[in-house]
Automatic annotation (TrEMBL):
InterPro entries: MBL_Glyoxalase_II, Metallo-B-lactamas, RibonucZ/Hydroxyglut_hydro. Pfam families: Lactamase_B (PF00753). This is MBL fold metallo-hydrolase. It comes from the Bacteria. It comes from Alkalicoccus halolimnae. Residues 12-191 form the Metallo-beta-lactamase domain. Gene3D superfamilies: Ribonuclease Z/Hydroxyacylglutathione hydrolase-like. Keywords: Hydrolase, Metal-binding, Zinc. Its cofactor is Zn(2+). GO terms for molecular function: hydrolase activity; metal ion binding.
């Protein structure tokens, strides 16, 4: 399995194309739909689904055009079922200078953690709220890859001052879910460069004071 990290949209949010054997998934199409679709065409892959780590505006900017063009379903946690349509909840109607984004609801809602399969792709879904109530992490066990959205960054953690955010819940998610993954697990997050669980245990000032 291969992946490409593509910074997209006004905040250069990391979107990802995951693919193998001409089949693929998209994680967090944050903007620049034509560019993203062009890359999909270059790779000549069939996209089975769009996976959202959460529904903040900078992660969904290209969602509607991508969904329509590729005719693929969207997956989102049920806790944010209303967020794609609601500009206040997804944040696009809150910040000055940001274009309001309203999308149709997701075709599929995650309701519980566990092993999931979409097309040829198998992964484990972790519920990792705190940055937002429906934040999830997509963990590809055999590849040691975790697509974590805005939960854990290199040297940082997600902000918790937006709707439904909680620093206590966020840190619980990180310690009870992500830090239990193998140290070599790559964390592919929503902003900035990738990191590993081991590196964050050693160097992240927000989490490394807990005896790791």
């Amino acid at each position: 399995m291969k992946y490409e990290r593509i910074p997209l949209g006004p905040l250069q949010t990391n979107g990802y194309i995951i693919y193998k054997d001409r089949e693929g998934l998209i994680v967090d199409p944050g903007g620049e739909a034509d560019f993203l679709l062009g890359r999909i065409k270059e790779l000549n892959i069939k996209v089975h689904a769009v996976l959202l780590t959460h529904a903040h505006f900078d992660h969904i900017g290209a969602l509607e055009k991508v969904r329509e063009e590729l005719q693929c379903p969207v997956y989102l946690h049920e806790a944010e079922n209303e967020w794609l349509e609601n500009t206040k909840l997804n944040g696009s109607g809150v910040f000055p200078g940001i274009e309001e984004i309203s999308c149709k609801k997701a075709e599929n809602l995650w309701t519980e953690e566990g092993e999931k399969e979409i097309g040829p792709f198998a992964f484990y879904l972790f519920e990792t709220p705190g940055h937002s109530p429906g934040s999830v992490t997509y963990y590809f066990l055999h590849e040691n890859l975790a697509f974590s959205g805005d939960v854990l960054f290199r040297g940082g953690v997600g902000r918790t001052d937006l709707t439904g955010g909680s620093q206590e819940v966020l840190l619980d998610s990180i310690h009870e879910k992500l830090l239990l993954l193998p140290d070599e697990t790559e964390i592919l997050n929503g902003h900035g460069p990738e990191t590993t669980i081991g590196e964050e245990k050693e160097t992240n000032p927000f989490i490394n004071g807990f005896g790791w």
